[in-house]
């Protein structure tokens, strides 16, 4: 299908890399499968070292002129890019459904947030700060761009997370190479093609490839910064590779977010919110609720209501407008999450809902579907509690002592997000501030905004994306001393 909007006409059936504003092919191609149907999707390029070298050279050549453009002019390019994406919105939503397995409402939500993020970021500025002003001298701190940046983007939010790196990088004067996940390259390739109609050559480039492409980019001496979103295990490899050339690096890694439900929580309000936040995108979001700690006095009522709510969530393929949960995105992740389901019988966990043999929808003839599953109060040392499932399975655990539940929530190598739910907002905030995570919420979870930084503690990351703090990560601070003669 093709957009017919004048000036921004795209063919959504063929896919190319974008290098220096030229659509390029490669001798070798590959494809992924639609996770809802397992039908093969179109062929995409497999970038070579020569392609990487060409993109880095183009980014370096474009950098000097791009960084010198006024920031308002760079912002105007981002706003035109948002307009161009919006002109192709229906096609991008359909493409997200096919490549990521997102139901219609989830695909539309990602695109709406991504467009809002792009436009809001275009309005942000990194200020130059005067830290001393006297009769003899002035000292100020400004932030200058790094050069060629690389964004390595995961498969679960292939548009939003890519644009959330791109906008900050370009606005601060860097050039940008987008490397999408091999499992979900399609939207990014179309965004690169669209970007060639908006940005000067070499400013925005997109390279699709196999597992070898990431290391080629992280090791390249011409790349100044890498921003990576993905697993903690891969993040360690990215950081090690970047160390050889002292690249700047931002890592947004896995999460195992805890939500603490206090005894005074209003279950009629809290249960639907937490049920949706646990199973949004079938649990395949780093900031989904992964561990639910519920006070013992309300535990049974909470669990009963949670099961009833989750039963109302329709699981279906991306084409079903009423679907809330869809498939697991790829076969490798499906096999990994299915292993947790296999642990149910082996570890003798109590199942409140789902499982491979319990209530709820089961494996369909085609597609990587797993039933939404709730595990009733497993031991804290259980794999389902310790590991991030990244699938539609969540444990609910009892607590009775505040100090103990804070300790249990913090007893993880992950520290991305955490939340506290209570009618006593002041007490909930007191508890939230004791949690070891990059973002904490009171009576909400997975609440994000373009002007608020987003990142993790511990093994959940280094540095932040988004907001002015995220923009500073695409810059070197520079102290400027002026002696008044």
TrEMBL record:
Q: Which residues form the active site?
A: 252
For this protein, the record's CDD domains field holds: ALDH_AldA-AAD23400
In what residue span(s) does the Aldehyde dehydrogenase domain sit?
A: 28-480
Q: Which reaction does it catalyse?
A: an aldehyde + NAD(+) + H2O = a carboxylate + NADH + 2 H(+)
Mind listing the UniProt keywords for this protein, alphabetically?
Answer: Oxidoreductase
The record's annotation in Pfam families points to:
Aldedh
* Top-level EC class as recorded in UniProt: oxidoreductase
Q: Which GO terms describe its molecular function?
A: aldehyde dehydrogenase (NAD+) activity
In terms of InterPro entries, this protein maps to: Ald_DH/histidinol_DH (IPR016161), Ald_DH_C (IPR016163), Ald_DH_CS_GLU (IPR029510), Ald_DH_N (IPR016162), Aldehyde_DH_dom (IPR015590), LUC3-like (IPR044086)
Q: EC number(s)?
A: 1.2.1.3
**Member of which family?**
Belongs to the aldehyde dehydrogenase family.
- The name under which this protein is listed is aldehyde dehydrogenase (NAD(+))
Organism in which the protein naturally occurs: Lasiosphaeris hirsuta
């Amino acid at each position: 299908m093709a957009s017919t909007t004048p000036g921004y006409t795209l063919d959504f059936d063929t896919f190319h890399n974008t290098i220096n504003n030229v659509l390029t092919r490669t001798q070798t191609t590959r494809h992924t499968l639609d996770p809802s149907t397992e039908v093969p999707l179109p062929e995409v390029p497999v970038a070579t070292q020569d392609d990487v070298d060409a993109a880095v050279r183009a980014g370096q050549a474009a950098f000097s002129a791009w960084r010198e453009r006024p920031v308002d002019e760079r912002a105007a390019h981002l706003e035109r890019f948002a307009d161009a994406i919006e002109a192709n919105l229906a096609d991008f939503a359909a493409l997200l459904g096919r490549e990521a397995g997102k139901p219609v409402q989830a695909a539309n939500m990602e695109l709406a947030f991504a467009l809002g993020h792009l436009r809001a970021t275009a309005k942000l500025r990194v200020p130059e700060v005067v830290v001393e002003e006297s009769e003899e001298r002035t000292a100020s701190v400004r932030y200058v761009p790094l050069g060629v940046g690389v964004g390595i983007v995961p498969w679960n939010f292939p548009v939003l997370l890519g644009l959330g790196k791109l906008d900050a990088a370009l606005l601060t004067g860097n050039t940008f190479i987008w490397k999408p996940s091999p499992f979900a390259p399609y939207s990014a390739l179309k965004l690169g093609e669209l970007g060639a109609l908006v940005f000067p050559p070499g400013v925005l480039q997109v390279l699709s490839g196999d597992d070898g492409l990431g290391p080629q980019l992280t090791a390249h001496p011409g790349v100044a910064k890498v921003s990576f979103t993905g697993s903690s295990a891969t993040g360690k490899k990215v950081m090690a590779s970047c160390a050889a050339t002292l690249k700047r690096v931002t890592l947004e890694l896995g999460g195992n977010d805890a939500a603490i439900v206090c005894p005074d929580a209003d279950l009629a309000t809290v249960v639907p919110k937490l049920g949706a936040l646990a199973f949004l995108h079938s649990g395949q979001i780093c900031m989904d609720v992964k561990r639910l700690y519920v006070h013992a006095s309300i535990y049974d009522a909470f669990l009963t209501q949670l099961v009833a709510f989750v039963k109302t969530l329709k699981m279906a393929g991306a084409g079903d407008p009423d679907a809330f949960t869809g498939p697991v995105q790829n076969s490798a992740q499906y096999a990994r999450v299915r292993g947790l389901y296999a642990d149910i019988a082996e570890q003798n966990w109590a199942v409140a809902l789902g499982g491979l043999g319990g209530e709820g929808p089961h494996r369909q003839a085609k597609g990587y579907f797993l039933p939404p599953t709730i595990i009733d109060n497993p031991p804290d040392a259980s794999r389902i509690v310790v590991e991030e499932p990244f699938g539609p399975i969540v444990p609910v655990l009892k607590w009775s002592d505040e100090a103990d539940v804070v300790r249990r929530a913090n007893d993880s190598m992950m520290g991305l997000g955490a939340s506290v739910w209570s009618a006593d907002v002041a007490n909930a905030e007191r508890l939230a501030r004791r949690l070891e995570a990059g973002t904490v919420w009171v009576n909400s979870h997975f609440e994000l905004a373009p002007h608020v930084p987003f990142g993790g503690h511990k093994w959940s990351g280094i540095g932040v994306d988004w907001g002015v703090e995220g923009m500073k990560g695409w810059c070197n601070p520079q102290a400027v001393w002026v002696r008044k003669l």
